[in-house]
C-alpha cells in the first residue's frame, strides 16, 4: 500500500480564500503606488517598473498569509528593492539618466538630478523624501544599519545640491561664487 503524495498547496475553503483576498486588499494594495514609485526610480524605466510591481504582486499574494498590519509597506518595498536588484539586466532599458540642463523646468532638473544618482543613493532618497519613510524603515528595506542610511542620504543630498547648483550657475550666467553667496539676486527685505 503506497502513501498518497500530499498536495503542494493545502486545500482552502472558499470562505478562507475570500478572507485572505480581502486581507491582502486591505493591507497591501494601498502601498502599490509607493512600490511602483520605488521601482520606477530604481530602474529608470516605466515598463520595467510595471513588470517589477506585477512580479511583486505575484510574490505577495503567495506570501500574504504572513502579512501583519504593521510593516506591510516596508515588507512590500523590501521585495521591490530586491526584485529591482535581481531583475535581469537584459530586460531593462539603459540606465542613462538625462543630464539636468538650464533650459528645463525646475521639476525636470530635479528629476534628472535624481535619476543621475547612483542606485544606492537614489533608493534611500526616494524612500525618505518621496515616500516619507523613517530611517529605521529604510534600514530594514535596504538591509543596512540606520547610520548607513543617514550617510547615504547625506551624500545623496550633497550630490543633488551640487548638480542643481551647477544648473543654476549655468542658468544665471553669474560666476559660481556669486550664485553661491546670493549676489545678483534681489534681497528679501521687509522695510
What does this structure look like?
The protein is built from 9 helices and no strands. The protein has helices at 14-27, 32-43, 46-62, 72-86, 106-115, 119-130, 135-142, 146-172, 176-181. Helices cover 63% and strands 0% of the residues. With 191 residues, the chain is an all-alpha fold.
Low-confidence stretches: 3-9, 90-95, 176-191
Helicity level, as a percent range?
55-70%
Question: Structural class of the helix and strand makeup?
Answer: mainly alpha
Total count of domains: 2
**Rounded mean pLDDT score:** 76
- H-E order: HHHHHHHHH
**Estimated radius of gyration:** 22 Å
Would you count the extended β strands for me? 0
Shape: elongated
Features:
Arc Repressor Mutant, subunit A; 191 residues; Rna Polymerase Sigma Factor, Chain: A; single chain; 9 helices; 2 domains; elongated; mainly alpha; disordered C terminus
Short structural summary:
The chain has 191 residues and is mostly helical.
Ordered list of secondary-structure elements with their pairings:
Elements: H1 14-27, H2 32-43, H3 46-62, H4 72-86, H5 106-115, H6 119-130, H7 135-142, H8 146-172, H9 176-181
Helix pairs in contact: 2-3, 2-4, 2-6, 3-4, 4-7, 5-8, 6-8, 7-8
Amino acid at each position: 500500500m503506497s502513501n498518497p503524495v500530499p498536495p503542494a498547496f493545502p486545500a482552502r475553503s472558499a470562505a478562507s480564500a475570500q478572507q485572505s483576498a480581502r486581507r491582502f486588499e486591505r493591507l497591501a494594495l494601498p502601498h502599490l503606488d509607493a512600490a511602483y514609485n520605488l521601482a520606477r526610480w530604481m530602474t529608470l524605466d516605466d515598463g520595467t517598473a510595471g513588470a517589477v510591481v506585477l512580479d511583486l504582486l505575484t510574490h505577495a499574494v503567495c506570501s500574504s498569509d504572513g502579512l501583519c498590519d504593521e510593516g506591510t509597506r516596508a515588507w512590500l518595498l523590501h521585495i521591490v528593492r530586491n526584485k529591482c536588484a535581481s531583475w535581469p539586466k537584459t530586460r531593462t532599458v539603459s540606465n542613462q539618466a538625462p543630464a539636468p540642463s538650464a533650459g528645463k523646468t525646475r521639476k525636470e532638473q530635479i528629476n534628472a538630478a535624481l535619476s543621475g544618482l547612483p542606485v544606492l543613493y537614489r533608493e534611500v532618497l526616494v524612500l525618505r523624501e518621496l515616500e516619507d519613510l523613517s530611517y529605521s524603515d529604510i534600514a530594514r528595506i535596504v538591509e543596512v544599519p540606520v547610520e548607513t542610511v543617514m550617510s547615504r542620504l547625506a551624500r545623496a543630498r550633497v550630490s543633488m545640491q551640487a548638480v542643481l547648483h551647477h544648473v543654476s550657475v549655468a542658468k544665471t550666467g553669474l560666476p559660481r561664487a556669486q550664485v553661491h553667496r546670493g549676489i545678483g539676486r534681489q534681497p528679501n527685505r521687509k522695510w
